[in-house]
Amino acid sequence: MNNPNMLSNQKPPLGGGLERFPESPLSPASFKKGQPRWCPGCGDHFFLASLHKAMAELGVPPYEIAVISGIGCSSRLPYYMSTYAMQTIHGRAAAIATGAKIVNPKLTIWQISGDGDGLAIGGNHFIHANRRNIDINMILLNNRIYGLTKGQYSPTSPRGFVSKSSPYGTVEDPFRPAELAFGARGHFFARAVASDSKGTIEILKAAYHHKGASVCEILQNCMIFNNGAYDPIYTKDGRKKNAIYVEHGKPLVFGENNEYGLMQEGFGLKVVKIGENGITIDDILVHDAHCQDSTLQLKLAMMDGTNGFPVALGVIRDVPAPTYNDAVNEQIEEVKQKKSYHTFAELLETNDIWEVK
């Protein structure tokens, strides 16, 4: 932990180390710390820079933020944050983040996990944090590989993937993070490509403004063990051809000149070309990120760039719902009002008391 005052409701005292920027305008430099120790070209570098910029734009001072991670390459990120920060144990970032948020609801919590840390040993915590709707921002840095332990396949590696632990190809189907989040009754899911700073910053800001559990899946390459995992959408030109930026209230169009769109076909979606067969922009589906029914949102999230469908980027689902941390604290206050004691000393006095002389 970077500072022992992490769970305090009070602003750190002068000289405490995190009060360097409380009154000055915040900039990305306000949140930077140390020299990142990731391989050159790693998607973690891209994401860290975007997180610094997003935090500066949000304007929340460093002493009101906690960045909590598990174990893995991406989980080194708290060391590079000039905020309260804590690297915990493998797969337990969501559990620690939950505790921190309940103890101090005023903290803004950013939880950082990789696809292995977050969905393998930490998979149970991931689904229950979504189900409970804890007010934390869960970042899933997905490179489809175990990088820190040198190249084993992960829960998101595709079937047939050749790695050090699957030299003849995996014989398993992967988890799809969106499917897990939606299945756990998650209320916020967004996706960005690490190399797309603007897109990443936008979903991070949206996650912050969402009250409840938010999941941001960040697609990134591992330069050493899985380079090229997202090549079709890793460049700006590639995203024009192979991705669709979804925005609430806007038509679902894509292509280099927005010449393609998505229409509903039965219970699914289909790709159409605007201007052909009498199809106009008015026929194209309009994205509704706030719809309680997640059917179409999940269809969007599950598009993977095959069969002519693009990869969906942006805020796919953003629906309000009661949060676990608010409910817990409200329940505590409600129970306290009904009790005749409010401190430990008062509790002792509710029983028979004898004075020994």
Give a written overview of the molecule:
- The structure is a single chain.
- This protein has 357 residues and is an alpha/beta fold.
- The protein is built from eleven helices and eleven strands.
- Strands 2-1-3-4-6-5-11-7 form an eight-stranded mixed beta sheet, sandwiched between helices. The protein has a three-stranded antiparallel beta sheet with strand order 8-9-10.
- A hairpin with a 5-residue loop joins strand 8 and strand 9.
- Helix 1 crosses helix 6 and helix 3 crosses helix 4.
- The longest helix has 16 residues.
- The termini are far apart.
- The N terminus is likely disordered.
Q: What's this model, at a glance?
A:
This protein has 357 residues and is of the alpha/beta class. Helix content is 29%, strand content 17%. The chain has helices at residues 43-58, 93-103, 115-121, 123-132, 177-183, 197-209, 231-234, 236-242, 295-302, 324-338, 344-348, and strands at residues 65-69, 84-87, 108-114, 137-142, 188-193, 214-219, 243-246, 253-254, 260-265, 268-273, 311-318.
